[in-house]
Fold this sequence. Notes:
This protein is mainly alpha-helical. It folds into two domains: 5-69, Arc Repressor Mutant, subunit A (Orthogonal Bundle); 75-120, Iron dependent repressor, metal binding and dimerisation domain (Diphtheria Toxin Repressor, domain 2), CATH 1.10.60.10. The protein contains six helices and two strands; from the N terminus they run H-H-H-E-E-H-H-H. The chain has a two-stranded antiparallel ribbon. A hairpin with a 5-residue loop joins strand 1 (53-55) and strand 2. Helix 2 packs across helix 3 (37-49). The longest helix is centred in the middle third of the chain and has 23 residues, at 65-87. The termini are far apart. The model has no long low-confidence stretch (mean pLDDT 92).
Amino acid sequence: MALQESGEMYIEAIYVLSIKSNAVRAIDVGDYLGYSKPSVSRALGLLKNEGLIKKDSDGYIKLTEAGNILAKRIYERHTVLSQMFINLGVDEETATEDACRIEHYISDKTFEAIKTHMKQYGS
Length: 123
């Protein structure tokens, strides 16, 4: 399944919020991303239809197994790329913003090469 960048942003946001709290609500996702309630509602509906999230009886959002796998992949890209840019001398804010843009487009092959390089050179 090829999820668009915006869908990946939502999945990553839910993942990050769920690390901090087991009770993730739509309003939390909207606040985290800075998106309106209607935009969040529509996106969450699409993610639910894709089988990436589910809502419990109290309305809390949970990642499905497939959603969790995807979220971990996206988040790893974000953290590794951010750290690489910081190691290159980029300030943390810029490094994080640039990583957020790139994480959605970099190929698996290139990302794996970056991870290997960083492990090899202790970065």
